[in-house]
Specification:
The structure is a homotetramer.
Chain A lengths: L22 E5 L3 E12 L6 E4 L14 E6 L5 E5 L25 E12 L3 E4 L5 H14 L4 H19 L5 H26 L2 E2 L5 E2 L2 H11 L2 H13 L2 H4 L3 H5 L4 H7 L8 H15 L2 H12 L4 H10 L3 H11 L14 H5 L6
Antiparallel strand pairs in A: 1-2, 2-6, 3-4, 4-7, 5-6, 8-9
Chain lengths: ~350, ~350, ~350, ~350
């Protein structure tokens, strides 16, 4: 979905280089040819098919940019460029410790389309600019809610911080316990706003359910902030050693390995290497490869913070709320405020709703 | 439920005056006699019956304090003392404007029991100190979730702030719009955490459903902060006139009424009195009678902030989360972390859950 | 200074009623006659003289509004209208307890000028619209720094919260101590930004010193938020009794006075009335008369929050900071960034500075 | 100063391995021999001399740990172990772009002392455990104030964020401007609390000036939070490309270099490489090598957050503030509160102060 966008103060058709948004360059009897590039494609390298779609509201002059279609991941004309991530080369060092989280990591790639063909039967939209905004909004409604996944990542970070505090011998301190409570409070806020959006899903005409858009935006907007605060608190509990700790090669060295095992020991019944591995995990999640997913992608994935604020603003039913206030303030008459706009239907199973 | 509590560093039986927690003073064949006082009883003056119950975890020596029973609201020996509220006497001034919110307000009373009788058939607990903590926790689980109601009050305040901004002629300014979005974002967080707790309810052995306790505490904990921030933003949008505005008697005065109508005018198509009424409503909700309910009661009702933090701390499954972290950090073996404690059942309909 | 402003989306000369900004209505050989109204005049009722001045940047068409002059407080044509404050009438009840803070309070009045005369020798500006903005900025530079005074009020509230925690028997709890630390941290931030602005004062051409404008705005901007958080924490430590406590007349009553003294007791060595007085003081400072000064006036006095953000934005030297970033990023050449704009002079006594 | 500390729940003499705090192992006529290790030594590799000193309050049984002395950086028995930093090996790639900030970086090392000799004339403390706490407090008073330096780093990050926003074509958007204002507001808070602490310095008996300890702690405590928020906002303004951008080798590649220059273009008059360099600078400061100094070291250097809270708590003069509150609440007599403890001397040049 995400075009590279060029100069963001200009619409697609206004760009100096029209290729900065994916668009149709040629039409034949059999289909269309597209050109452009999509950025930040998480997991595209593991996929068999890709579906291209517009990334923003389009105007009548953006007609060629209103293209939705499916292409095989290995279609001629596609180039993938793998992105760098913080600390990515630690995985090439043959590391068993420094590259933690040792088991999992993610990647993003940029996908460049140089005259890629989409046959007619795989085209789902072509030129219907009026529907681009609705398409984007429905997609982001689902996608923003899906950021509830970060609460699972947060649980790991809470666990890592608690385990390091234990290894440091400070897990009984009241301020340590309180910070773990704060991290949990924030993390459960992500979790519960995410699931609330799903529980409030309503069927569309097609019968497909669409989750609550307001709450999906509230959830994602918290995700642009709370993981950063959870990460900050994890660094607080980890201690400075997380960023000054010698490398695993030093630990493995005949000359100084024993010295490090001696001096980097925390609580005497917990192996030094366990403590170091936990610190590397927190480094990985707050500065390293997984910080890309846990922090920066939490910020920008499924729309940057301002995109959620715009969407919350669109749905905040100010006119209805102003009527509520006016009535309580004794402005105007006694008649009840008509419950237009779904305000009550959202909360109660009323006769109207 | 809420005893007056005396010296909070001491258990009920340790108080210099045992009456500071409601307790049984005498037992007969027919029932028990109780003495003590309950504070902050919202709505008790509108009730027909009251149920008294313990307010905290009790130990074996607190046996006489483990009493639950029903009493008619007009039972002999009961004294009600009505509490003061900020700006309460404005309602006695014959006000039509200064006392806004003109339609609704609440009250709290202190209830003093001087040897009040409870017959055997209305006693539901007597001396079972072991169950006092569970009783309190279940009650607060329901009660903390019920604070979702503050999101309705928040909607009114958002509406009032928007209406005043309009009357001031600044509703198109980007920072004004952004503050309304922020208020909505916070308010919807209260709403969605509240309903999420209900949606995640599970049946107990009795068949009665109990809502999710972790999320109920997360919801209530936000309620101890977010209404204050929403209130602060409402005061920001209202402008300083909210606290320097002349009284309604000045407005009604022959001598200066017209001057006030002239000089307190905002946008010329909105009557001065409308603007004044909206400002009085915000004053009422952030400093006056309804601030008691929207702010201070949001802080302390159903348990003060620290009570939620304790409850979140109890349920945060640190051992399980530490295992998750250790496994990703490569500490210990390869075997999966056993999903004890309901971690996965809470999220997924798994075979175990 | 603060005109009543009418419709804020319009300049003075665009208002439907020109009187909504103080302006010259007539000029004679001896002086000028003015008309209009100033809002929120703290302490004007204690003053011998008033100086009127414009409240915002003026354009060429606002010429009649560019008037600065001195008038005696009792000049013919002036009307004062005293503002209402939350809980103001408690002072009329003959209270000894409910109206606390018993010793001090403030007031604001609206000042209406109906053709008030200013003789030539007391006119300091008349029509020089170009200088209105500079006049406002210099005034607010001093005035915003002066909000450091709220840190003194904050100290009282910290003391009141600590004293109530003591009376409640919870002053040894770690979370209580931590909240007092947080209140102090915030309050000292106000104090230290305030004094830093003064210490960084520089002489103007006249020899008069002007304090640092950036820091004055940073100080005042914190004052629009931190007192609200300090007040919230004070309410947390006070407990709900602050808003449900019976009135002083109940305490004085023969019938129930003793009951209240018995049941509102906290720690047994502290008189009930002491506890009640402290609670009333916190009520007074967070909901009552002094909340007007400590909260809402902290928000709007010397300019509402957005006014500080505009002023911070004007002075943030983005061009210089962009150059710093470009150089470290290796964009452009090796030559040092020229220290224009006073960046270094502000920090170091350099040769240029 | 910072010992490796082992199990933090135990005093130095209680550790299973006494070497976890630097201590005297042997005394001779000529001097003492020490053993132990100091962690997180910023810049030690650039130094000629090191001064070892205790890291915390010591008790009578910690006598051997109360050692202060100077040692040459190349004294026999010292081992330095260089710490890893996020993205450190990018500097070994022969990078011209990915390793930005290209000009500067820092390092920390662990210093291990295996029986290092200190001659008598270089010993400044030996066994005076009573003075260890005062020594630590004075050192941290200076050191915490010195964290004002992070406001200079913050200025660079503000500049980088502004420059990227410009390259993205969004620098005119109101929310972008507002985020730059917020970053500046936070950054100037660090700056002004830092300089306020210095301006309030008082001479000690020796004639040496000691800066204000309360404000130094307030400054450092903000430094444990505000850079994280400034960093978060910088990532917001940077956009997701910061973490998904291809490597400089891809940019240099014959095959796809031109494609990247085409598709990673922002505003058409700004070279793609300029935009990429700025993004790498922000990555470097929020996730990479300089994030170590700007974030994690801001957290833990000169004491972790809780250390500042303890120090603020010690100096918050609660007894004096409680007296202020009691007097305003009408508790006790009319006599003025005696200004003990330096409360007024700190603010005013009074006769007593």
């Amino acid at each position: 979905m995400t075009d590279v966008k060029g100069d963001r103060s200009k619409a697609p058709h206004q760009q100096d280089d029209p290729d900065l948004y994916v668009h149709v360059t040629r039409r034949t009897e059999e289909g269309v040819w597209i050109r452009g590039a999509k950025a930040h494609q998480t997991g595209c390298l593991n996929s068999h098919w890709m579906i291209v779609m517009p990334t923003l509201r389009l105007g009548p002059e953006d007609r060629d940019f209103a293209i939705v279609g499916a292409v095989p991941a290995d279609a001629p004309g596609i180039t993938y460029v793998y992105g760098r991530q913080s600390c990515d080369t630690r995985h090439l060092e043959g590391s068993r410790l420094d590259a933690d989280n040792a088991r999992f990591s993610g990647q993003e790639a940029m996908v460049i389309f140089e005259d890629v063909f989409i046959p007619n039967h795989l085209i789902f939209m072509d030129g219907e600019t009026d529907y681009a905004a609705m398409l984007v909004e429905r997609f982001t409604c689902y996608h923003r809610r899906s950021y509830v996944c970060k609460s699972g990542v947060g649980d790991v970070l809470i666990g890592a911080a608690a385990a390091v505090a234990e290894a440091n011998g400070v897990d009984k301190a009241s301020h340590v316990k309180d910070k773990l409570v704060e991290m949990t409070h924030l993390n459960e806020t992500i979790y519960s706003t995410g699931i609330a959006s799903s529980y409030q899903a309503k069927p569309m005409k097609s019968g497909v359910y669409l989750n609550d858009d307001m709450i999906a935006n509230v959830c994602k907007h918290h995700v642009t902030k709370m993981p950063y605060e959870i990460g900050r608190l994890a660094q607080d509990l980890a201690g400075g050693l997380m960023v000054t700790m010698p490398s695993e090669r030093d630990l493995d060295s005949d000359e100084i390995g024993d010295l490090l095992r001696k001096y980097l020991k925390g609580r005497s019944d917990i192996p030094t290497e366990t403590r170091m591995r936990l610190l590397r995990l927190i480094e990985n999640m707050t500065l390293g490869r997984n910080a890309v997913g846990y922090l920066t992608e939490s910020m920008h994935g499924a729309g940057s913070p301002q995109a959620q604020r715009i969407q919350i603003g669109r749905q905040m039913e100010l006119d209805y709320k102003k009527q509520l206030a006016r009535r309580l303030a004794g402005v105007g008459g006694e008649e009840p405020v008509p419950a237009e706009g779904g305000y009550f239907e959202r909360v109660f199973e009323t006769e109207e709703g």
